[in-house]
Amino acid sequence: MERKRVGIVLFDAVEVLDFCGPYEVFSAVRRDEAKRREEPSPFELLLVAEKSGTVTTPGGMRVTPDATFSTCPRLDVLVVPGGWGTRRELGNPAMLQWLRERNAEVETLASVCTGAMLLGSAGLLDGLHATTHWRSLDWMRDSFPAVTVEYGQHVVEDGRVVTSAGISAGIDMALKVVARYHGEKVARATARHMEYPYPDSNARRVPLPPLAGC
Question: Signal peptide: which range, if any (predicted)?
Answer without folding.
Answer: none
